[in-house]
């Protein structure tokens, strides 16, 4: 059985198409499980709860199922605008570590997929058994029975998506200013060294703000969704022209709520921004997102908001929350299929300031930010 996807139109159509295609794969998996079981048992272990498509393709036993999964994988990567950034994203995943021992001991699994729409409105999780019967599982209580989930590799997808978003923003802004497109951070920070690597005194120091610690509250994430995949959008204004800056930053460590993380991650490069203030949105990956379209939409609304301000210099950094507000409006209205896309927002983070256990505007994130000046290599 080869699932098909509808043509890429609005995000809601993509979400329905994705859910129905995963359902078809889950049914196919239930029908072929006896043949696939040895392959899955060799691949899934305490060290790796997933069986990536690339590994399934290497097994003759898994070939028929892998062919179906490959068709969906290609269609999804096109739908999401990341086909140029990763070769595969599909996988089979054991839903929870607690299921591993029972599954390895031979207990027959169920075969599930994420439902469509807002997870707060999910009434149950559907899953097939090996006879093709449907079981209705609780949304938040982890089942006692092993469950294999037909899904995308969220980490791999988000990494590709962030590259696609940043590239699309740079491309669009470069089209508007072909002779003055913003350079990458590496080029901005080290251009002096590139021109004369023997003159260390000419290399500027880099002023940054580091995320030293972060913790998210319990967001009742359904068990079938696995780990959270979080990223940040830092918003500000270009230092050389009246144009918004949107920097998309991966946060690959931020997997679970009610857990302290100490990433020591640089979040803001201040030479990217006109004033010594920036906002930071925290977002979670959305299964229905086309990343290039999302980047285009966010840039369009931020650009329109900035153009609507008669004289940005008069308001100075007060314009940044206005840009952020328009970005926030665009996300749930146009792109979210799960309302947990938006996690929280930090307004007006200032250069050189330390924020200790600082609560974000929505009271869902608590973080510590510290200034860091990076000097050139001696």
Secondary structure elements and their pairing?
Blueprint: H1 11-43, E1 50-52, H2 53-56, H3 63-79, E2 90-94, H4 100-104, E3 110-112, E4 125-128, E5 134-137, E6 147-152, H5 154-176, H6 185-195, E7 206-216, E8 230-237, E9 244-251, E10 265-269, E11 277-284, H7 291-307, H8 312-315, H9 319-334, E12 342-350, E13 355-359, E14 365-374
Parallel strand pairs: 3-6
Antiparallel strand pairs: 1-2, 2-6, 3-4, 4-5, 7-10, 7-14, 8-9, 8-11, 11-12, 13-14
Helix pairs in contact: 1-3, 5-7, 7-9
Gist?
The chain is an alpha+beta fold and 378 residues long. Helix content is 34%, strand content 24%. The chain has helices at 11-43, 53-56, 63-79, 100-104, 154-176, 185-195, 291-307, 312-315, 319-334, and strands spanning 50-52, 90-94, 110-112, 125-128, 134-137, 147-152, 206-216, 230-237, 244-251, 265-269, 277-284, 342-350, 355-359, 365-374.
């Amino acid at each position: 059985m080869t699932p098909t996807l509808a043509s890429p139109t609005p995000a809601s159509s993509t979400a329905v198409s994705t859910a129905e295609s995963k359902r078809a794969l889950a049914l196919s998996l239930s029908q072929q499980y006896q043949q696939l079981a040895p392959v899955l048992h060799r691949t899934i272990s305490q060290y790796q709860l997933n069986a990536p498509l690339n590994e399934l393709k290497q097994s003759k036993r898994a070939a028929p199922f892998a062919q179906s999964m490959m068709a969906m994988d290609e269609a999804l990567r096109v739908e999401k605008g990341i086909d140029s950034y990763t070769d595969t994203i599909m996988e089979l995943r054991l839903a929870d570590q607690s299921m591993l021992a029972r599954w390895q001991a031979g207990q027959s699994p169920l075969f599930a997929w994420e439902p469509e729409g807002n997870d707060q409105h999910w009434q149950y999780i559907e899953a097939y058994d090996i006879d093709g019967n449907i079981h209705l599982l609780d949304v938040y209580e982890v089942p006692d029975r092993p469950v294999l989930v037909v899904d995308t590799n969220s980490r791999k997808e988000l990494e590709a998506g962030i590259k696609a978003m940043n590239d699309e923003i740079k491309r669009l802004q470069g089209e508007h200013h072909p002779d003055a497109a913003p350079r990458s951070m590496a080029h901005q920070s080290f251009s002096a060294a590139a021109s004369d690597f023997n003159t260390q005194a000419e290399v500027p120091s880099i002023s940054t703000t580091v995320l030293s610690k972060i913790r998210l509250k319990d967001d009742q994430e359904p068990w079938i969704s696995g780990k959270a995949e979080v990223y940040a959008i830092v918003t500000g204004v270009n230092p050389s022209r009246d144009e918004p800056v949107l920097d998309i930053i991966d946060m690959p460590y931020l997997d679970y709520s009610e857990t302290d993380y100490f990433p020591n991650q640089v979040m803001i490069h201040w030479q990217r921004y006109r004033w010594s203030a920036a906002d930071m949105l925290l977002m979670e990956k959305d299964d229905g997102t086309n990343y290039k379209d999302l980047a285009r939409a966010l840039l369009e609304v931020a650009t329109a908001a900035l153009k609507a301000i008669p004289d940005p210099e008069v308001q100075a950094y007060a314009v940044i929350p206005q840009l952020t507000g328009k970005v926030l409006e665009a996300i749930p209205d146009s792109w979210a299929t799960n309302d947990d896309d938006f996690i929280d927002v930090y307004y007006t983070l200032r250069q050189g300031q330390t924020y200790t256990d600082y609560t974000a505007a929505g009271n869902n994130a608590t973080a510590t930010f510290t200034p860091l000046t990076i000097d050139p290599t001696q």
